[in-house]
Design brief:
Blueprint: E1 2-10, H1 16-24, E2 27-33, E3 39-44, H2 45-52, E4 58-64, E5 67-78, E6 85-92, H3 112-115
Parallel strand pairs: 1-4, 2-6
Antiparallel strand pairs: 1-3, 2-3, 4-5, 5-6
Length: 123
């Protein structure tokens, strides 16, 4: 799997007004969970777009407060009008702990069953 490095800043407020102020300053509020504790962070909007707008599953190496946290985007929320990222949920990858995620499947070519008149059903 591909991985990219992203810088993040810890955020201390978890109220709606704190999140609105972050967005005005072109920051994206996020939460990193699944590890020892939940971590509230914010990302630069331009830097996080290379992580969000990709068809691939990418592991993020998040540099925050002198630590490196590996994670996957679990959920992303967008503004319905501007299509800007409003919030991210990032699942921290812990060695030895299983992860459930959805993967895109790309079918290449045709099987002999489809060539013989069968149907391919993607569920």
């Amino acid at each position: 799997m591909k991985s990219i490095a992203i810088n993040a800043e810890l955020r201390n407020g978890n109220s709606k007004s704190d999140a609105v102020n972050l967005r005005r300053n072109e920051r994206v509020p996020a939460i990193i969970y699944g590890g020892e504790s939940n971590t509230l962070v914010s990302f630069d909007e331009k830097e996080i777009n290379k992580f969000i707008y990709t068809p691939e599953i990418i592991i993020a190496e998040i540099h925050v407060d002198g630590k490196v946290i590996k994670g996957l985007i679990q959920d992303k929320q967008f503004d319905p009008v501007t299509d800007k990222t409003v919030h991210l949920d990032i699942l921290e990858l812990v060695p030895g702990k299983p992860v459930k995620t959805s993967l895109p499947i790309r079918v290449v070519g045709n099987s002999s069953g489809v060539r013989a008149g069968g149907k391919l059903k993607m569920v």
